[in-house]
Amino acid sequence: MVTLAEVAQRAQVTAATVSNVLRNPQKVKPTTVERVMAAVRELGYRPNLTARALAEGRTSTLALMLSNISNPFYPEFVLEAETAARRRGYFLLVCNTDDNPAIARAYLDKIAGTLAAGVIVMNTDVSAGELADIAQRGSALVLCMWESAQATRALPCVTVDYTHAGGLAAAHLYELGHRRIGALLGEGSGGPQSVRLRGFVEALAARGVAADAVKVHACRDSIEAGYDAARALLSEQPKLTALFATNDLMAIGAIQAAADIGKRVPQDLSVIGLTNIHLAHQFRPALTTVGFPTAAIASIAVALTIDRIEGIKPKRDAYKVPLAELVIRDTTAPAPKASRRK
Amino acid sequence: MVTLAEVAQRAQVTAATVSNVLRNPQKVKPTTVERVMAAVRELGYRPNLTARALAEGRTSTLALMLSNISNPFYPEFVLEAETAARRRGYFLLVCNTDDNPAIARAYLDKIAGTLAAGVIVMNTDVSAGELADIAQRGSALVLCMWESAQATRALPCVTVDYTHAGGLAAAHLYELGHRRIGALLGEGSGGPQSVRLRGFVEALAARGVAADAVKVHACRDSIEAGYDAARALLSEQPKLTALFATNDLMAIGAIQAAADIGKRVPQDLSVIGLTNIHLAHQFRPALTTVGFPTAAIASIAVALTIDRIEGIKPKRDAYKVPLAELVIRDTTAPAPKASRRK
DNA sequence: CTGAAAGCGCTAACAC
DNA sequence: GTGTTAGCGCTTTCAG
Fold first, then answer.
1. Cα–Cα distances in Å, from B251 out to A295, B200, B245, B283, B334?
2. Do residue B83 and residue A98 have CB atoms under 8 angstroms apart?
3. What positions does the domain HTH lacI-type occupy (chains A, B) (predicted)?
4. Which of B115, B220, B249 is best to mutate for the A interface (most A CBs within 10 A)?
5. CATH annotation of A162-292+326-339
6. A47 touches chain B (CB under 8 A)
């Protein structure tokens, strides 16, 4: 491995000068710069980022902690986060906790502040309180996509307006004439996605649909679980004309369940999801859903984390990205005539 | 940040002893161990992995370079690789090249041998020759899932037997009576997936189906591209009774295309994919496919990389994981009677 | 504008 | 068993 010292020797200067050439070339005489750069090229010198990190007292690595990357939302998020990080000269360490708080803690304990200068923590089973302690010790932690975290200036949270997102779904179904509506409440890591559901129920209530008219079934956040839950819910409540799922995976499972019990989507049953993962438009019928601005969330989370690393104080506790938008595709339609109230 | 020296001072020993307690406790007197551990606990000491890496001359980080993590095969792979790495005390840096060789080179240049002790390089647009040069410089590079790389002892490759995988698909369709067969040839990063196709065509040839009877259409490796390609192929060749896609995404697109032009799958058209991503069984109709042993591939690639980092020489150039297996689901059926030859 | 020197936090010989 | 010492490769004052 070629070191700074070797480059320095070859260019007839000291290591300090080489370092300057590489970092603040304007502070060095042009002819020297040229000589040093020549040596760098000839020797094929590449800075040792580990040594640099030690000397600077901070690494150029960010960690992204998530519960399970095989949930398709995360790869989409990782892609955006990695791109944002790369643009600012940072690398991204992926920490998959496998829904296991012990793994999450072990990761945090090992990397926060040493291997990774900052950590973006997606919804996990580690409590925000515990994370706040770690943040207190000086690590740049940023929560992301937590549905109900008590964000503080020391532990800010980047998220979307889940209530609003749920409300958009409600408004859409209401306007299509649906009144007998079921809901699948997802339970990912970090607890149930109940804010989304609350937003949904409240928006219906505001339109005169009683909250207890919404039949809710809880399940894990996956296609398979959504399938099972929808089957159960639809057999208990055969008159439902629409189903809201707090995330797209469950909505897709619900569509499959409907097909298997002979209900056509959207003619007999409308289904709407939340998130707008790629699969939502790739699946058939293409899923109507409320889209999250994934790229924006990721890049804000990355930017906020880097700002904290670099000592820039956050201006707010929570960063709500409000741009959830309704994406109408092929799984929602007007409520069947027979069931309409008005 | 609490340092070794502070722990040492508190425990009335030197830094070297603390280091020993943490790394080779059996070499230290039990009472000392206890005293040191107490100090560690009281101070909340956590080793600085950057400093350790610099001192040891190597990091405990692996990089995984892939073209685009939003292709659902990769998250599944990342999950397995990360788990395997974690078990051996390594962290995983995800390097997404966005199908851009310049990004790949930049990553390699920056991290190989400095930030990451080893790099697993998935199929990319950077040539194996170029990678071999980098490997020569001493970085632990391991190729993974390359379809046609000239693996060497200095640059080994972990992969599956693509020919065999293609052959399994061919045998299945043949046994169902299909003779008019189309193929979608995927073009991911790193070139066309032609070994899979060759295996498919050769296996058919071995059964007496002429190679030029297989109508091939090339396209990108995605659901959308598979959809377009299948539509085009099926309209050119309306008598096809079966379609082989060199990967599952394209197969899923093909199923959607068939539906849109009024062909029922599998009654009118059988479709078989390759890889067995999660989506293959989540999709409806559930996709018949040839499965890759993703977990095995990932863990072998990780193990091989770590072995190289730790100085253990690879025994072979190429590691072919031969366990591709046929997974029969709902998209393949006997060829329609009208079209059967025998 | 460049060089000298100290030090980031830890490890690893080698003494004692 | 434990301490001493010398780095790992780089950055960063501070002199000159």
1. 28, 15, 5, 11, 18
2. yes
3. 2-56
4. B115
5. 3.40.50.2300
6. yes
